[in-house]
Amino acid sequence: MVLANYFTAKGNQVKFTRDQASRFAKDIANDFNPLHNPDAKMFCVPGDLLFSVALDYLGLSRHMHFTFSGMVRDNAVIFPDGDLSQIDVVDETGKQYLSIEREGDTTHDPQLIGCLSSRYVAFSGKAFPHILVPLMAAEGVMINPARPLVMYQSMEIYLDRLDLSDPKLESTGSYLDIQGKKGTVRLDFRFMEAGIQVGRGAKYMALRGLQPYQDEVMQHVIAEYNDYKQAYTAN
To answer: What pLDDT sits at residue 231?
Structure first.
């Protein structure tokens, strides 16, 4: 993953074009969420791209928590300078899009940061349909097929140490909590190196507009998703 291909920077100001964000989602994250299509009415930059750029700019700390509070479109955001424990990523008007809490030692090792980012992004991109659909079916709900809203909410990582060279990422469970027409998905994972667990983490996603599960309808949504993915990769 050559991260510099997916954003432009001027100092600590970072900007993403719709094309860059969409290519990252599809080519790197294997994420074909329609929110990341360049012509989408509710277009937004993938959270995994913001996460990767944040690590590139700020370094990797042993404990980090990311909360996504706004949808970055094709505007610029600012990563503050300094070794801060609480970081707010905002635009020129002060509107906040991402908050980061971090503690513990920090590394700026580009090899480790690139490895961890790539492994996390690959894991994150498998959420739909492989993980989300079985979770929804088990709970008897599904996203609105006419307007499928699945949004990145937050993620957290806890590393036991930073002297790592090639950490692998493994799923350790997935859960769906329903609150009426809303739901929260938690994807748990761990980091492994040389057969030893060296860290753990979780990703949280928000589901909106939930309705009773209909397998035939859901299978049609999956088929359309896969057809679009295949058509894109064939080009």
So the answer is: 87
Q: DSSP class of residue 58? A: H
CB-CB contact of 72 with 95 (8 Å) = no
Q: In the beta sheet, which residues pair with residue 89?
A: 98
Q: How do strand 86-90 and strand 182-193 relate by DSSP bridges? A: unpaired
Mean pLDDT per 10-residue interval, the chain, length 235 residues: 91 93 93 88 92 95 95 89 89 94 96 95 88 95 88 95 95 96 96 97 95 95 90 83
- Interhelix angle 110-124/47-58, rounded to 10 degrees, is 170
Burial of 21 (0-12, 13-18, 19+ CB in 10 A): buried
Collapse the DSSP code of 212 into the 3-class scheme (helix H, G, I; strand E, B; otherwise coil) and give the result.
strand
Give the integer Cα–Cα distance in Å for 1 and 122: 11
Answer whether the bond into residue 212 is a cis peptide, omega within 30°. Answer: no
CA-based nearest residue to 53, from 24, 82, 73: 24
Q: Using CA atoms, how far apart are residues 175 and 24, in angstroms rounded to an integer?
A: 26
Residue written as token pair 């750029």: 53
pLDDT of residue 166: 93
Count of other CB atoms within 10 angstroms of residue 118: 15
